[in-house]
Amino acid sequence: MARAGRGGFVMNFDDPRYFARQDASADTLFYQVPRLVIHVDEHASAVLTEWYGAQLPQGGTILDLMSAWRSHLPDDGRYGFVVGHGMNTGELTENPVLTAGVIQDLNKLPSLPFADNAFDGCILSFSIQYLIQPVPVLAEVARVLKPGASFHTAYSNRLFPTKAVAIWQACSDAERAQLIGAYLSEARGFANIRAERLVDAASGYDPLYVVSGTRA
Prior knowledge:
The protein is an alpha/beta fold and 216 residues long. The chain is built from six helices and nine strands.
């Protein structure tokens, strides 16, 4: 379905087969019941929280895209404003670090309801595999970030298999980093695209990877 070339991950973003899912029903049905899980073990979650804390600016306005009941952000009040953009009101209400919440199905409407240059940073944790229009969504992320602001998406090897897109499930963990990099490149507006492995699967804990880019 796709291959890794010298320039990174090569794919036809217009081919619907890449973004097919076992369960093509409305995501509003799938997420209508709160799913109070954090998607990785406590060790990986703690590592990600520490890492986010070192990357995102204190006092900044942060967008937690595809948010849930935990953001994996430090809960010490270091950020000026944190907006959770998710699918379930109950989950966002339970999230202790959010200042505000927005409910929206990005697979139906990939545009974000925020002004240009509104955020000092954006995170997307353990959910990019569910986007059927990742490039338009990430183009919107670039639009709402301030120049020089960073975007970070974390992933592991856990997922809801019926909702993850085909191309994600066909990839290895390493290939998924290339895939996200291809999304960011195709979305344009990002520089310094890079991947990091924060927890190795050989450690006995859930593996943890982050792909980042800077708003150009």
